[in-house]
Amino acid sequence: MSTWRFLAVTGATVAACTAPLATTTAAAAPAATRIVTTMYFGNTVVTEDGGYMLSQVLCPRGTVVTGGGFRIEGVGFLVENSTPFNAVDGGPAVGWSADGVEPPGNGRTALTVVVMCAS
User: Fold this and answer.
1) Smallest Cα–Cα separation from 114: which of 3, 37, 36, 4?
2) In sequence order, which residues have a C-beta less than 8 Å from that of residue 25 and are 6 or more positions away?
3) What is the C-alpha to C-alpha distance for residues 42 and 97, in angstroms, rounded to an integer?
4) Reported pTM
5) Distance between CA atoms of 21 and 89, rounded to whole angstroms?
6) What are the Cα distances from residue 118, in Å, to 29, 30, 89, 93, 94?
7) What is the rounded distance in angstroms from the CA atom of residue 42 to the CA atom of residue 7?
8) CA distance 50 to 94
9) Are strands 37-41 and 109-118 parallel, antiparallel or unpaired?
10) How many CA atoms lie within 13 A of 77 on its CB side?
11) Phi, psi dihedrals of residue 82, rounded to the nearest 5°
């Protein structure tokens, strides 16, 4: 069984996309802001007979984390965290991280993390 789980994060990105609710003429309309979001996949971490698993992926320099998630292939994996992470405490998010535990006896399990980055 394989399942993707995603979570969108930053309120700053939503605020940056919010346009004023005023009527303007074509000549006075503000320039549109184009935001491109790209998904980046991390390395797949595999366990054959249980144990702790961690996978992380970074956004490229100059982009902003807008969400992320993970994919599990296997059964029984217990997710502990799926969250953005930063390089410096209190700094902006630079990537996505997911970790958890696969109990012994469930066979092969694979964990892959994805991050969504806006530019």
Assistant:
1) 4
2) none
3) 9
4) 0.70
5) 37
6) 24, 21, 22, 12, 11
7) 16
8) 29
9) antiparallel
10) 29
11) -145, 105
